[in-house]
Amino acid sequence: MNWQSVSFDWNQARAFLATAEEGSLSAAARALSLTQPTLGRQVAALEEDLGVTLFERVGRSLSLTEAGLELLDHVRAMGDAAGRLSLAASGQSQTIEGQVCITASDLASALRLPPILEGLRAVAPGIEVEVVASNAVRDLRRREADIAIRHVRPEQPDLIAKLVQETSAHFYASAAYIEKYGRPTSARELSEAPFIGFEDPERMLPVLNALGLSLTRRNFKINSASGIVVWEMVKQGLGIGVMTREVAALTPGIECVVPELDPIPVPVWLVTHRELHTSRRIRLVFDFLAEALA
Is Transcription regulation one of the keywords (predicted)? Predict the structure, then answer.
């Protein structure tokens, strides 16, 4: 390899890649925990070293030039390689100290993880846990988290998944709701009730109506992408909610309505990257979560 032909450093290439993917210098600086002037200098240095212009300003935003577009795929491949190197190095770590990043839904992060992490602290006090509370599926291959708690099995072959629990979801109402609207006692009465919807209700309607209900979009007068917000609305009596039995059991003043309806199956998967699974601390946390969630 002609090492003299490589005239830039990785920090400059990373700055270019982050700016291209985030869409602006300010967003890229936040993603890389840098100041905007520092990031701008790195991008400018890369342009000078390569002798090309990578971005042009369009109003307040940046747009890739033709040269920038041609180089982006190459730099993205470098980023993927750097990510794989980081994964492999992390997987070789045999210490039980350091950070482990866990991602789970906002509800699971707020209600299910606290007692589990308290137990983990007693077992491995040297481990620092970062919790990414997100209802979006984080990309473990790009180190957006080390371990994920999901309700769907991943399809990527480089991810390891373990089914740790097969729970179920049911219909729940608060005491305040029952006092105001009455307790529904049949699928017909439930079909006439107001519901609190999570994200797009259209995705849940076929599942709920397969249980014998006749719900339409009109039943969902309040919707939110936040599970915590949805559950708080249910707690305060604004409508019926669909929730797993574990979360409902942690919530005072909530009761299952029309319990004779078939439950909605909800699998719980624990997922990590194959490279990380060899790390002693990642494996310890993975196994601890698996046992605690079972």
Answer: yes
